Amino acid sequence: MRPYALLVASIAALGGLLFGYDTGVISGAILFIGKEFVLDSRYAALTISVVLIGCIAGSAVAGSVADRIGRRWTLFVAGVVFLAGALISALTPNETILLAGRFIVGIGIGFSSVVAPLYISEVAPAPVRGALVSLYQFAITVGILAAYLVDYVFAAAGQWRWMLGLAVVPSVVLMAGMMGMPESPRFLFKAGEEERAQNELTRIYEDPAESRREEASIREALRFKSLGVRGLMSPEIRPALFIGVTLAVLQQITGINTVIYYGPQIFEMAGIGSASVSILAQTLVGTVNCGMTLVAIFFVDRVGRKPLLYTGLAGMFIALATMAIAFSQPHLSGSLAAIALVSMMAYVGCFAFSLGPILWLLLSEIFPLRVRGAGMSVSTLANWVGNFLVSQFFLVMIERLGRSATFAIYAALCIVTIVFVRYMVPETKQELLEQVRVSAR
Ligand code: BGC
Questions:
Q1: pLDDT by residue (tens digit) across 291-313?
Q2: Looking at residue 383, what DSSP letter applies?
Q3: pLDDT tens digits for 405-440?
Q4: How far is the CA of 198 from the centre of ligand 1 (A)?
Q5: Ligand 1 site, residue 121, Cβ cutoff 6 A
Q6: Which residues of 180-201 are buried (b: 16+ CB within 10 A; e: fewer)?
Q7: DSSP assignment, residue 224?
Q8: pLDDT tens digits, residue range 164-188?
Q9: 374 C-alpha to center of ligand 1: Å?
Q10: What is the pLDDT of residues 179-225, one digit of tens each?
């Protein structure tokens, strides 16, 4: 039990909650927004995707902001941006301002997706770092589930402004919470604030010997000069950058957001006709996603990152391959439809304890302190670009290639990911953050 570190990680994880809520909420809201503003389908699609463009922009700059003003204030700024975006979107008089509001929300998500895991990993004691960063992914899944439920509750009266506006509550809690949180001891050492840094380490570690060991390893890391984005291309850093960017893209192109964003359409393909059953099934997806993340929190520091990745990815492969086979039939009979739906849940569940949390964890671990902000920014940016591409092209793929081939491609990409993890990704379990080494293999 490390109550202090748990408290700090939980407040920072609110950034994840907003990430999940704001990416999930639009799927239900768009139906009513489209009616009120009489949007054509292209404008409706833009209203959905503009948030991802904001995420790309936000994640591109978040790392350098965090290296300049610190992790803590960057997360505070993310809270302010979330608040502004939610208010503008909820109170908008027209669709153009709504687009601006959603873009601002995207910037907030981009910021928090870089800085929240970075901050948590820097304040977490090594033995529980995996669990605490996985808490961030857990918060993302709680946010997604909350969005599905809020959409469901407000759908009866078509109150889309409430759906978008409720994000105000966690935004304010994030801002207020971050004001009371400490700065990361790593950032403080880097900024030359030794005494504050030492105090923070003592509070995090409780045991003075552990705290001294951590301090020594941070000091060792600080012998090297801080490098900006350009430093990412230096020969010692390039392998970490390659792993970060590739894994971030693989997390997306193995298809998770097809289910998270387009679940109801997939249910329809499997033959579920009624909208209310679809919404219910989507809530079940959200619950599985949330519940299975707990498995990662429990095991990631015990069995390690790579065993969880192998198990989860193998499960995702089997589930996707089963979906590909089921969808190869022109009509899904009752039992085949049930198999497809169970596979979809299994796929989400396997992602939730593996590639979901462990991507964010590894991104926060593999870059040395002197390029950590920049490295996380660039990798996270790649994650958002992958997200944008998959969500833009999923329905097109279904139309052009067919349902079966589409899921078969995602299945094949799970195998690619297993091979990549096997040969490229280091095991970081129990290592002090500054002692993680990524070498070219
Ligand atoms: C991914 C998101 C995804 C979410 C689902 C995150 O780790 O980055 O794109 O929507 O997991 O739980």
A1: 999 999 999 999 999 999 999 99
A2: H
A3: 999 999 999 999 999 999 999 999 989 898 888 875
A4: 35
A5: no
A6: ebbbbbbbbbbeebeeebbebb
A7: S
A8: 999 999 999 999 999 999 999 999 9
A9: 21
A10: 999 999 999 999 999 999 999 999 888 788 989 999 999 998 888 87
Ligand 1 site, residue 260, Cβ cutoff 6 A: yes
Element (H, E) at 429: none
C-alpha of residue 224 to centroid of ligand 1, in Å: 34
Q: How many CB atoms lie within 10 A of CB 209?
A: 8
For residue 66, count other CB atoms closer than 10 A to its CB. 28
Q: What is the mean pLDDT of residues 61-90?
A: 97
For the Cβ of 289 lying below 6 angstroms from any atom of ligand 1, the answer is yes
Helix/strand/coil (H/E/C) assignment for every residue in 67-135? HHHCHHHHHHHHHHHHHHHHHHHHHCCCHHHHHHHHHHHHHHHHHHHHHHHHHHHHHCCHHHHHHHHHH
Q: Which atom of ligand 1 is nearest to the CA of 140?
A: 12
R_g (Cα) of the chain, nearest Å: 21
Q: What is the mean pLDDT of residues 366-375?
A: 93
Q: How far apart are CA 348 and CA 319, in angstroms?
A: 9
What is each CA distance from 240 to 27, 120, 360, in whole angstroms? 35, 20, 14
**Does the pLDDT at position 441 exceed 60?**
no
The Cβ of residue 153 has, within 10 Å, a number of other Cβ atoms equal to 14
Kindly indicate the confidence band of residue 245, based on its pLDDT and cuts at 50, 70 and 90: very high
Q: Give the closest residue (by CA) to ligand 1 atom 1.
A: 356
What residue type is assigned to position 287 of the chain?
Answer: T
Between 419 and 441, the more confident residue is 419
Helix (H, G, I), strand (E, B) or coil at 321: helix
Sign (positive or negative) of CA dihedral 212, 213, 214, 218:
positive
Does residue 113 have its Cβ closer than 6 Å to ligand 1? no
**Burial profile 28-45: b = 16 or more Cβ within 10 angstroms, e = fewer:** bbbebbbeeeebeeeebe
